Amino acid sequence: MRTPDRLPSMDDTRRRSPTSSAGGDMNARRPRSTADGAQARWFDIGAMAIAALMVGLWIRDPAPLPAYSGPIYDVISCVAGAASIAALWWRRRFPLVLACALLVCSTLLPVVSGPSLVALFTVAGHSSLRPTIWATLLALCSTPVQVVVGSPLRDTDFWRGVLALSLAILLVVGWGIALRSRRQVLESLQERARALARERDLVADGARRAEREEIARDVHDSLAHRLSLISMSAGALNYRREEIPAELAEQIATLQGNSRAALGELRSAIGDIRTGIGSREFSIDPANFDLLDLVEDAQDSGQEIDETITISAGLSPTTTRIVYRTVQELLTNARKHSPDQRVHVRATGDRDTGVRIMMANALSGTTTEVGPPGFGLVGVAERVKMHGGRLTAGPTAAGQFEVNVWLPWKDR
């Protein structure tokens, strides 16, 4: 339970709700985990057992009885004792109300004195300072009445009886306050530990971000330089178009265009590495990520492809980009490992089922050197996983290698 006199923690001002005031939280319960709830219930059972023991001892040896005792009084005492024990099950939910009710009953029915002390302990251990003070004052004020009217101490010296009951009440209240203070200190330490863990995670994220930026800078400086050299060399050859065959000139122009496109995509990918996928606006318009154009470019290069592409409109730019990059990498992977086999591509998507990509091709022993081995599908899987999707890949019984990708649909 959150109380106003709780030791402050770093995030109290942000996490405190409008209803957690001094007057509104005396009967409130703080959120507990399943394990904490089970432990609390065992404590409740233990408290009820202690109260039942005290009630049983009083019924067995009631000491001097009040002047109004009799058969009816005995029945009422038994019923009141059982009811007070059962009421302790709700001692955490209504601590102050239950304690006040039992303290009032204990003035006329001494059998309820034991459960009333348990309820008073609950108020001291789980409520704030104000309800604890009110409950303690009520208990102290009821002691003279118990001594005179219904207590077993009525035949002893009045002040000795009042002093004995008052000491018992103060001991119970002090024990409850001590346990509450200990629990609050532990909660404060746990909150500080969580704050330190969050701070440590932020420092680790900053270190990872700095490392990504350093890697991105190195990759950009090396590859961008090489790609710009290729583009410049192709451009220099393109100026001498009249001196070379037309077919070769066309290939040189294609080389120059592809190198420029690769340089632009490299810079875009570097942005992904630096800031994380999906955390920035794209430098390239997602509308340019046309899967049909991508397939046509692959077909123009000689790759045989059967495509089925039906993706509904309204897909978010982030998901559009990832779908495009996934199909692009899978086509490259198929071109690398099975260049002589026809590739079957199917990409479908809507708001109800998400985006599904399937690519399959027959296994082949022929490979081509398209890029460094071993990281194509790993990179695709990582990108898909970061977006909340999943990827499965492997050979099928029909002798094909099949890749299946699912991505959650996110609206534009």
UniProtKB/TrEMBL annotation:
InterPro entries: HATPase_C_sf, Sensor_HK_TwoCompSys, Sig_transdc_His_kin_sub3_dim/P. It holds the Pfam family HisKA_3. Keywords: ATP-binding, Kinase, Membrane, Nucleotide-binding, Phosphoprotein, Transferase, Transmembrane, Transmembrane helix, Two-component regulatory system. SUPFAM superfamilies: ATPase domain of HSP90 chaperone/DNA topoisomerase II/histidine kinase. GO terms for cellular component: membrane. This is histidine kinase. One of its GO terms (molecular function) is ATP binding. The chain crosses the membrane at residues 40-59, 71-90, 96-121, 133-152, 158-179. Its EC number is 2.7.13.3. It catalyses: ATP + protein L-histidine = ADP + protein N-phospho-L-histidine. Residues 1-15 have a biased composition (Basic and acidic residues). It comes from the Bacteria. Residues 211-275 form the Signal transduction histidine kinase subgroup 3 dimerisation and phosphoacceptor domain. It comes from Brachybacterium alimentarium. Residues 1-35 are annotated as: Disordered.
